[in-house]
TrEMBL record:
GO biological process: DNA repair
GO cellular component, one term: nucleolus
Subcellular location: Cytoplasm
Name of this protein: Endonuclease V-like protein
Major place of residence: cytoplasm
GO MF terms held by the record: RNA endonuclease activity producing 5'-phosphomonoesters, hydrolytic mechanism; single-stranded RNA binding
Source lineage: Eukaryota, Metazoa, Ecdysozoa, Arthropoda, Chelicerata
Residues spanning the membrane: none
Pfam families: Endonuclease_5
InterPro entries (UniProt xref): Endonuclease-V
Annotated keywords: Cytoplasm, Endonuclease, Hydrolase, Nuclease
Top-level taxon of the source organism: Eukaryota
Length: 232
DNA sequence: GCGACAG
DNA sequence: ATCTTGTCGC
């Protein structure tokens, strides 16, 4: 908990050294879990070039997973594994270090304004964007949760073209935390994009869109499918 | 007590 | 997250 607060002080919410028009590479990391063996998981780091082609991947098996997943505390479970993969890349293939990272989880679109993508960005000093497939629900009571879900349903119907989005604000202070973004013409459900670290929301949206051939951005799709394959 | 809640 | 199954479309 004290670690989180120390990291949070260093969070940066605007573009730092990022020129979306001349991105050379983009990275992603994903963790897949075994259903049969609760202590086993696989972490996969991928690097894609500016044409969204896979140019590097590395996977590590976790055999002693003990931390459970608790909603709102994803970073508590996954951060150490993401950090390990980045440290390894820095040691062995530093010339492949991506300009920007997509993280499977939210950035500031979070109860404490500091989700996994932000933790990861600050802890490793990387430019990160948070991407999640499901809406983050702030509300606690069943009643307000249901109304929040209904709100999302209504907002989803307003998305018509690729690149359309709706803002998601903090339920109390109303600050903008992220967007629900339509990434392909075919997809009914948006993805949820937020600032991770050292990146503005507009840049996060633009880069995420550039990465989408399908609903889920290519870097995350690659990391997800490779880590899942390693698990078998 | 049980299920739901980014993954 | 994980599992299954089926269905549609290229």
């Amino acid at each position: 908990m004290s670690v989180n607060l120390e990291l949070r002080k260093r969070l940066i919410l605007n573009d730092v050294d990022i020129d979306a028009s001349k991105l050379s590479s983009i990275g992603a990391i994903d963790v897949s879990y075994s259903k049969h063996d609760l202590s086993t998981a696989v972490t996969t780091l991928v690097v894609l070039n500016d044409r969204l082609e896979l140019i590097y991947s590395h996977s590590s098996t976790i055999n002693d997973l003990t931390t459970p997943y608790i909603p709102g505390f994803l970073a508590f479970r996954e951060l150490e594994y993401l950090k390990k993969e980045v440290d390894l890349l820095r040691e062995t293939k530093s010339h492949l270090m991506p300009d920007i990272w997509l993280v499977d989880g939210n950035g500031i679109l979070h109860r404490n304004g500091f989700g996994l993508a932000s933790h990861f960005g600050v802890a490793c000093d990387l430019v990160t964007i948070g991407v999640s497939k499901n809406p983050y629900i702030f509300d606690c009571s069943e009643l307000s949760k249901r109304s929040a879900k209904n709100q999302y349903k209504i907002l989803m119907k307003t998305l018509k073209n690729v690149g359309d989005y709706f803002y998601i604000s903090h339920p109390i202070d109303k600050t903008i935390l992220g967007v629900g973004l339509k990434t392909t013409l075919e997809s009914t459900n948006p993805i949820f994009v937020s600032i991770g670290h050292k990146c503005s929301l507009n840049t996060a949206i633009a880069i995420t869109l550039k990465c989408c051939k399908y609903r889920i951005p290519e870097p995350i799709r690659f990391a997800d499918s490779i880590s899942r394959r390693h698990l078998i």
